[in-house]
Amino acid sequence: MTSKTLFARIGLGSVVLAAAMMTAPAVAAADPITDFLCGTGSAQFCPPPLAPFLPPPPPAPAPAPAPQNAPPAPSTFQYKNCTEARDAGAAPVYRDEYGYGPHLDRDNDGIGCE
């Protein structure tokens, strides 16, 4: 082989190599054959595109704590009269207690059947 033919083959190989490098994807896969096949237009050999990075959502705020000294829910039961409350052993009946009713508290001081 003459030196002129050798330089022509080297030059042609360099042009092909440069063209392949310009058409190759920016991020190379682990396999150079896959890179070459993907760069030549064979989409079946191209790796799937990466999903965009999304930061994790911020944590949900903690629920508000329940009040420590919340009054109990009023009951719907009320003694019919003070005799019934005394017989049950509940007299005197205080305003936020079970069985209290406003009709048992004549002076409206929060204590029924006094």
Overview of the molecule:
The chain is mainly alpha-helical. It has helices at 3-23, 32-39, 82-87; strands at 93-94, 111-112. The longest helix has 21 residues, at 3-23. The radius of gyration is 45 Å and the shape is rod-shaped. The mean pLDDT is 75.
Order of helices and strands: HHHEE
Tell me the number of strands.
2
Report the sheet-strand fraction: under 5%
Helix and strand composition category? mainly alpha
Mean pLDDT rating: 75
Largest sheet: 2 strands, antiparallel
Number of helices: 3
The parts where pLDDT drops under 50 for at least 5 residues are: none
Distance between the termini: 127 Å
Mass-distribution shape: rod-shaped
Rg is: 45 Å
* Helicity range: 25-40%
Summarize the structure.
With 114 residues, this protein is mostly helical. The chain is built from 3 helices and 2 strands. The chain has helices at residues 3-23, 32-39, 82-87; strands at 93-94, 111-112.
